[in-house]
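TICKET: design request
STATUS: open
ATTACHED STRUCTURE:
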């Protein structure tokens, strides 16, 4: 709490991002409609911004949008199997975004700018095959292939953009239709090469998948910059999540951000998927982007996975080597996403008992901008469905962040298998909280919550630990948790506790 006499400015509200999809959502073209019905409930539980799935037309209506075909088709033109994307029509998208903004939720667009997929025709070009593990090493002399590299966009024609894409707009591909061979082919041409401004994994990690865009070609650069302006005119977004940024030119991306700032105005929230366990590489990227850019904290996810799968792991080291520990302002913290969820290529196995601990670590602390995963709130669909994680308590933890997680933070990271912290509250958000967790047996800690709370009766808002804690005259309380569990202690009379447990996780009956 602020000392007497200090000027009392309103406490900035805690913001929470919601990744509004998971990989196995049904391809029924109703996702935008379901989200439109859900945004009011998400706002009520503390969500402020939605990261929506890639809304541009993919190579089929079953694709999640990372198989991007046409940036200028948001579900408006009859291409690649129909008008809708997997998620719905452009009209559905616009209505959903408008409803989100009406209830006070912003929208972040998932921009897939590294590649194109689903070409309309083959084109012949000269290539060399390169070593998949060292893309700088040629395996063959130059020769010609028939690659799927011609994009005509016949359903859209020249509306919004007149550019059609040809082999010379790309730097690489992975399939030769002439002989059916799959390999990594670097496309040859005057001045063409892999980008120098990409991650150095595999020698040069420019190539990821499909037809790899070449941002040294002026037509590609101009078309994508024009698309950024066009997008803002079509859908009033508040920020952009850039996919696969370690695979395409960081120089171009910096130029694109400057272009959008100049043409539309500054103030966008920008976050990139730079999925890398090297903290040094992530910090270098942030510096190169002049700290205008946030990154998802991949090392934190790997720490969660490692700790949850190691008996008696040291919880006090959970933030070691993480982005949030080194660059908290530029770190988007998370527990899981569509790439790390079960059965995906980057699946990071986090044991169910640890999920609530992990969500407390990202939602109830001062550092980082937390992103909550759709699959942990609404469950995962597909052939191997999973229910909402944490016993359905993730929405309550989001609400706890919004209502109680304010003020000075005091850490009690003093025992390897049991850690805790308190938030003391502020003058206008006074409730505060105390969080304690164990990855072994039941435990307890005396923790300070402030003399302002003396005499208050605190209970576990999650309902997993019975009993009460009375704050003594010195502002201390004894807080406990069950074995391999977590408890979040809050004044039993704190404002908003009656809102807990009200979130509706049944999203699939809404459309």
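STATUS: resolved
RESOLUTION: sequence designed for all positions
ATTACHED SEQUENCE:
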């Amino acid at each position: 709490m602020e000392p007497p006499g200090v000027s009392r400015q309103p406490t900035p509200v805690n913001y929470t991002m919601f990744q509004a999809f998971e990989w196995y959502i049904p391809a029924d073209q109703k996702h935008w409609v379901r989200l439109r019905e859900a945004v009011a409930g998400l706002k009520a539980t503390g969500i402020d911004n939605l990261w929506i799935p890639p809304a541009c037309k993919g190579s089929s209506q079953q694709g999640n949008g990372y198989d991007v075909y046409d940036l200028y088709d948001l579900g408006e033109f009859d291409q690649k199997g129909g008008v809708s994307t997997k998620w719905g029509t452009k009209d559905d998208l616009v209505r959903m975004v408008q409803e989100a903004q009406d209830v006070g939720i912003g929208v972040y667009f998932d921009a897939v700018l590294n590649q194109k997929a689903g070409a309309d025709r083959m084109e012949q070009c000269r290539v060399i095959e390169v070593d998949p593990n060292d893309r700088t090493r040629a395996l063959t002399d130059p020769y010609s292939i028939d690659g799927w590299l011609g994009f005509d966009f016949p359903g859209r024609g020249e509306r919004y953009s007149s550019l059609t894409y040809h082999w010379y707009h790309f730097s690489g591909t992975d399939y030769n239709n002439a002989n059916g061979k799959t390999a990594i082919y670097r496309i040859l041409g005057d001045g063409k090469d892999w980008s120098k401004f990409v991650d150095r994994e595999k020698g040069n990690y420019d190539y990821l998948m499909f037809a790899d865009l070449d941002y040294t070609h002026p037509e590609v650069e101009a078309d994508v910059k024009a698309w950024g302006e066009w997008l803002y005119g079509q859908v009033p977004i508040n920020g952009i999540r850039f996919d696969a940024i370690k695979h395409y030119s960081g120089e171009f991306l910096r130029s694109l951000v400057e272009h959008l700032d100049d043409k539309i105005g500054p103030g966008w929230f920008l976050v990139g998927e730079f999925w890398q366990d090297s903290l040094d590489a992530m910090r270098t990227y942030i510096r190169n982007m002049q700290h205008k850019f946030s990154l998802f904290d991949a090392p934190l996810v790997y720490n969660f996975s490692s700790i949850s799968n190691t008996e008696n792991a040291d919880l006090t080291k959970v933030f070691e080597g993480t982005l949030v520990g080194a660059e908290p302002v530029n770190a988007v913290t998370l527990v899981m996403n569509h790439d790390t969820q079960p059965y995906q290529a980057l699946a990071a196995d986090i044991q169910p008992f640890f999920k609530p601990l992990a969500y407390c670590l990202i939602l109830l602390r001062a550092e980082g901008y937390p992103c909550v995963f759709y699959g942990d709130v609404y469950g995962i669909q597909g052939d191997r469905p999973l229910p909402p994680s944490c016993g359905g308590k993730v929405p309550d933890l989001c609400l706890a962040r919004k209502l109680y997680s304010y003020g000075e933070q005091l850490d009690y990271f003093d025992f390897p298998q049991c850690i805790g912290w308190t938030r003391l509250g502020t003058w206008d958000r006074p409730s505060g909280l105390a969080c304690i967790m164990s990855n072994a047996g039941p435990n307890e800690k005396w923790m300070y919550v402030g003399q302002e709370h003396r005499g208050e009766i605190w209970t576990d808002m999650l309902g997993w630990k019975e009993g009460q804690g009375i704050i003594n005259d010195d502002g201390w309380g004894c807080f406990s948790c069950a074995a391999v569990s977590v408890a979040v202690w809050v004044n039993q009379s704190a404002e908003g506790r009656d809102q807990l447990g009200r979130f509706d996780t049944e999203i699939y009956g809404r459309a």
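CLOSING REMARK: DSSP finds ten helices and 25 strands in the chain. The first strand starts at residue 17 and ends at 19.
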